[in-house]
Design goal:
Layout: H1 7-17, E1 20-25, H2 33-44, E2 48-54, H3 71-85, E3 90-92, H4 99-128
Parallel strand pairs: 1-2, 2-3
Helix pairs in contact: 2-3
Length: 134
């Protein structure tokens, strides 16, 4: 990106093109319109999302109506958060954990997921391609 580029145009396009999303939930995650918008777009696009719960429990995630967002956005964000809450993810306690361990674990999970998705796509191709008999 370069100065003058529209953030949402680039972010939305990248999310629509990605295969796997990683959402790092922090205690203040739900205060960010951008974070919530990105999560909602990943969930609406049916992307595989790997959540990382950093110093926060899934049950604590909730978009709050502070009067700055439209009610439709709040509903959309809470729906996406509910989806994330019930997705198996990674947890991290910054007081006890090692950042490099959680980053390594997350990247390993992304790579494994991409490999699985590639295998599933190849299986789909085999099922739908016509068999030629000679």
């Amino acid at each position: 990106m370069k100065p003058g580029d529209k953030l949402f145009d680039n972010i939305n396009g990248a999310i629509r093109k990605c295969k796997v999303g990683v959402a790092v939930f922090s205690p203040r995650y739900c205060e960010s319109y951008f974070c919530l918008h990105e999560l909602a777009l990943m969930m609406e696009s049916r992307k595989k999302v790997i959540p990382i719960f950093c110093d926060v429990k899934p049950s604590q995630l909730r978009a709050v109506d502070d009067g700055k967002c439209a009610m439709e956005d709040i509903r959309r964000f809470n729906w996406a958060l509910e989806e994330a809450k019930y997705t198996l993810g990674l947890t991290f306690d910054s007081l006890k954990g090692n950042w490099s361990d959680v980053v390594t674990s997350a990247s390993d999970n992304v790579i494994k997921t991409l490999i699985e998705m590639k295998g599933e796509k190849q299986m789909q191709r085999r099922k739908t391609s016509p068999i030629l008999h000679v």
